[in-house]
Amino acid sequence: ADSLYVSEYFSQSAQKLSFYSWYGNAKLFHFHVPEDTVLLRWLLQASRGKGPECTSMEITVHFRHGAPPVINPLGTRFPANATVRPSYNISITLSSAVPNTTFVNVTTPASGDWFIAAHLPQAAGRIEVKGFSTPCPYMFQADMFVLRLTDMPVLEPGVPMPHTVVSPAKPLHVKVFVPKHAAAMWFQLSSCVTSEQRACTVRVLLGSITLPQSFQRSLTCTGSTNCSLALESPPWEKWLQIMVESLGTANASVSVEMLASFTVCRPGSASSFLNFISLNQSQAGARPGAAGSSAPAAAQAPLNTSGQRSSCLQSQPVVREDLDVVSVRYRLLNGPSVPVSSLSPTLLLLNLNTGMDSGGSLVVSLLLNKTSVSLANATVAACVSAASPVLSLNATRNCSTAFSQGYPLSVSTSSPEAMLIVLYPQTDDWFLSLQLLCPKGQGECGSAEGRVSVLAYLTPCFNDCGPYGQCSLLRRHGFLYAGCSCKAGWGGWSCTDDSKAQTVGTQNLATLLLTLSNLMFLPAIAVAVYRFYLVEASVYTYTMFFSTFYHACDQPGVAVLCIMDYDTLQYCDFLGSVVSIWVTILCMARLKKILKYVLFVLGTLLIAMSLQLDRRGVWNMMGPCLFALLIMVTAWVHHGAKRRHCYPSSWKRWVFYLLPGITLAFIAISVYAFMETNENYYYTHSIWHVLVACSVAFLLPPRDKHKKPWAWSQKLTCRYQICQNDREELYAVT
Fold first, then answer.
1. pLDDT for 706-722, tens place per residue?
2. Nearest to 429 by CA among 386, 465, 472
3. Considering the domain boundaries, does residue 119 fall inside one?
């Protein structure tokens, strides 16, 4: 009946999309699909601004169940031993300012976490100065509608249950609980009869849809004969949804009888009491007052396996140790190595079901002890799988379970090491199954046993993104996930793709250009000191020093030198650059000394405050420049009106100093604002350094007529002080 269905609606706020250069540019949406959901509908809304800068744009949207989608829009290489399965994605084209609305339907979706990631195409690489251009805003919002059953019928294992499919438009939904240690499931449908007493045709769908890959099983039954389906390794301790839909006429109902049964595997493992003692001993150590017999008993735990050969699997106890955010280490209680035989697989449980573990990388490393294997041609096969373990490694090598595809590994005496990296593992219980295999079958192996060292851990970024990347912890509401931001031309998920990487020589050249180009401030400093502008010379020296060491610390490659915190160096570089322009223009205004120095100090304080508020804003540089130019023009007009002719009055001053300096300054601003990209940054920004320093040397006004070059040295007298009257240009000795 319709009353059995309940619809629910979930929404999240819209996010502004970014052009893609690394995973942090993708906007993530996190939803939770409730149990017994039979229909999931995504409502995707995309819009853009209305300005002339907005053009037609294609938005890519990725979907995944259980973990954030693993995407590769740039086509870069993943790290070796990493498992990559393409994400399910769609494209949305925004060709006008009219919002685009797209629906995506998923029938019988898997319950739990679902993720959506959206992004724009690859970034152009141009470095845009904030304020010079207005980027077009592209907005994206995802809403979720679910339709779920409030009282879905439960199919009890081993009990035949009759049901009726009312019509093809209203399929039948039931669910069955899969117990722990279930090795196989057998489903049977029988007694299929229509209301018109005709041969019925029904389709049975077992399992739920997961993206990007779905392993939903389909079974078509025709007539009254029994049809069945056997499933190996169904998901443990989960509800399995079964949908039966009629393929007959629209008005006929169908009666069926369903039966589900399970084959449960009896695990063999060391005594839980001994495992508990081993755990206490490993964590507490030899404490005063501890029982002396505990350690020998715990040491014998891994050897007590003689009575477990009749079981279908050997379970090894594993302790999950949380280290940090998205950082987990798995510790084996019976030691770093586990015994592996051909009689039954060895099973390790890797718990990743907290809901906060899917934002990192699961790393599983195996090392075979060569001396422990008596057969030279034996191989230890391993499978890493989610939801349910692979219990028949000797029968199949593809590590497939009933509703998922695992990841195979193998070690042998010729290749004793193996590693697997699972990027963004889905939220679930993960299992590592190991079994000894021989080319001629189990009879050849006999009772042979090998030992394999297992190292398993969850890390935010594999290998911490390497030497050419930075691991960044990202957040979407309460969900945390990690991504690698690469530099020096390196790319890929873990910054291991060197197809476009800069050579060490190129990195050294970039560092030398960006640092040594600041030495062009030396002529400006010399001119300032020569003309007795000591405050200005001090500011230029400050700018040269911090710009040099900021760019030495800012380099992406191996040629890096940081004399202090990066943020401090950046702030001092920006402050020195803006203050240098400020004092230069005020010096050109030829103000009275007291007024000039007051403006020097007051302007520097205001510039420091504005840079703290927004370091990269264009008006932090343009504002002081325009205000200083206004003061300079006012002062020049005042001087010209007072002298009754143009100021500065010398045409040589205009032709040989002011016009070249202004031209260099305009070229420098053009290069800085419109020509810099990520690829040419190291030489375009070096040109900016050279042009700005040269323009300062040209724009500094000449010294006062009554002052000789290096006039400051005359202050350093022993007994006499030279006094000067600027007004009357008379000198007196006291």
1. 555 555 555 554 545 54
2. 386
3. yes
